């Protein structure tokens, strides 16, 4: 390895704005278990599966309909 590297001609990563952001989110145990089971079946990390489900909601412009019982 070199002692110094020259980054003066470097360029910004064009995909940096598209990177995923880490957040904290509270989910019910039942939801986590559901996606963890799906992860075992598919071999994909459960966080990725949750992200794909939410991304599908965004693309399809799905809206949650909440009905409160009186």
TrEMBL record:
This is BrnA antitoxin of type II toxin-antitoxin system.
């Amino acid at each position: 390895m070199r002692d110094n590297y020259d980054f003066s001609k470097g360029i910004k990563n064009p995909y940096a704005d598209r990177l995923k952001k880490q957040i904290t989110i509270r989910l019910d145990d039942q939801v986590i278990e559901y996606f963890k089971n799906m992860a075992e079946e598919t071999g994909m990390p459960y966080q990725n599966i949750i992200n794909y489900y939410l991304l599908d909601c965004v693309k399809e412009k799905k809206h949650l309909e909440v009905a409160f019982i009186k």
